[in-house]
Write a structure and sequence with these properties.
Elements (H helix, E strand, L loop, with lengths): L1 E2 L6 E7 L8 E7 L7 E10 L2 H8 L12 E2 L3 E9 L11 E5 L11 E5 L3 E3 L6 H5 L2 H14 L7 E5 L4 H12 L3 E6 L4 H6 L4 E4 L12 E6 L3 H10 E9 L6 H7 L4 H10 L1 H10 L2 E3 L7 H12 L7 E6 L3 H9 L6 E5 L9 E2 L4
Parallel strand pairs: 3-18, 10-11, 10-13, 11-12, 13-14, 14-15, 16-17
Antiparallel strand pairs: 1-6, 2-3, 2-5, 4-6, 4-8, 4-17, 6-7, 7-9
Helix pairs in contact: 3-4, 7-8
The structure holds NADP nicotinamide-adenine-dinucleotide phosphate.
């Protein structure tokens, strides 16, 4: 490992003690992690929140990702490299980086975190840490779905229900950047935002069913699931793809996104049966991808933000000691854009010490 100023032994972190309610997460003191040979140790300056954080806490995702508890929560961050493994080539100590951390480790809600070299990118000089921390998970999801799953091209019409949230605020702008026309859904609370982001058609989902006004679309990117996802099949034309990141995983999710075997593919085959039947009836394709961490794709997003093609929408910024309030706000499902926490500069006193991390 190539160190700079030595990291302290202990750090403050937001720790999941057991699966369940918010009371099972605590701010406490845990050991600072050590980077491996292809990893960076990052002093976290800001971390973004995502629904995956409270879904993990509740244990909803245990079938796809099981963590040894207690574990430090948090999936995306921005900060400075303070040490690096001896095989790291692309980053030096002092670099400002942002990343979606490895899914099997998490750890972004802490003063220090380990990041794979391949998952990180340099933060453009025009962005502060809080804004950069809001980009990785939602931005990568939007970019990877629109580019790699829907292959969005100029002139296409794309339906993106749920445009006012973290993923939607990136997806509308990236789809517009790729030259598509975008229809989205929002409540009156989110309408002004989605219009400002470039949505061509906005349906107030509290008043109107999208399928009663939209038809013949070239693709759909669902962020809501349930009845909204069902309607997407009626809105696209035959031959189109309906992608959801909020519905049910399907066999390709296990195979392509998770590299898992027949057991999980069979489970997802059953879970997605009615959605795939709905797709077949329409002559459409149903796909549920998991986003993947990628430093290369993050650099692409950084360019889009730096060029002004994409604005990062931050709903609110909380100090790290109020992360429980930030999580509650996220879990209310009403955030407009992203929620971020910013870290204290030093390892100050903590509320509890947490054993076993
Ligand atoms: N598979 C993957 O790799 C992946 C990656 C990222 C995210 N996801 C999933 O994608 C989903 C969206 O994530 P997110 O970060 O965008 O969530 P989010 O930021 O929490 O979304 C909140 C927004 O959703 C809007 N909303 C709530 N109900 C709605 C409805 N029925 N119709 C339209 N808009 C509605 C809210 O607007 P109002 O307050 O105005 O209602 C709010 O602005 C989550 O389920 C998340 O877990 C999956």
């Amino acid at each position: 490992m190539i160190p700079s100023t030595p990291a302290p032994q202990l750090m403050q972190a937001f720790v999941l003690k057991a699966y369940g309610g918010p009371e099972l997460t605590v701010l406490g003191e845990v050991p600072v992690p050590k980077p491996g040979s292809r990893q960076l140790l990052v002093r976290v300056r800001a971390a973004g929140l995502n629904p995956v954080d409270f879904k993990t806490r509740r244990g909803d995702l245990r079938i796809v990702q099981r963590y040894r508890l207690p574990a430090v929560l948090g999936n995306e961050l921005a900060g400075e490299v303070i040490a690096r493994g001896d095989q790291v080539r692309r980053f030096g100590v002092g670099d400002r980086v942002f990343a979606r951390v490895a899914k099997d480790r998490m750890g972004a809600f802490a003063q220090f975190a380990v990041v794979e070299e391949d998952h990180a990118a340099l933060i453009p000089a025009s962005l502060n840490f809080a804004t950069a921390a809001a980009i990785p998970l939602a931005g990568l999801t939007a970019l990877q779905v629109l580019r790699d799953e829907l292959h969005v091209a100029r002139g296409q019409r794309i339906f993106i229900p749920g445009g006012a949230g973290g993923v939607g605020s990136f997806a509308i702008q990236i789809a517009k950047h790729l030259g598509a026309q975008v229809a989205t859904t929002a409540s009156p609370r989110g309408e002004a935002l989605v219009r400002q982001l470039g949505a061509d058609i906005v349906i107030d989902y509290t008043q109107e069913r999208p399928a009663s006004v939209l038809s013949g679309f070239d693709g759909a990117f669902d962020l809501i699931g349930g009845d909204t996802l069902e309607q997407a099949f009626a809105i696209v034309q035959p031959g189109a793809t309906v992608v959801s990141v909020a519905g049910m995983p399907e066999p390709q999710t296990a195979l392509k996104d998770m590299g898992r075997g027949l057991g999980l593919q069979a489970l997802f085959w059953v879970a997605s049966f009615s959605l795939r039947r709905r797709a077949r009836q329409r002559g459409a394709r149903y796909r549920y991808p998991f986003m993947h961490p990628s430093g290369e794709d993050l650099s692409e997003l950084a360019r889009l933000v730096d060029d002004g093609a994409v604005k990062v929408i931050v709903d609110s910024v909380y100090p790290f000691e109020r992360i429980a309030d930030a999580m509650a706000k996220l879990e209310s499902g009403r955030a407009k854009g992203k929620i971020v926490v910013t870290m204290p500069d030093t390892t100050g006193p903590t509320n509890h010490s947490v054993d076993g991390v």
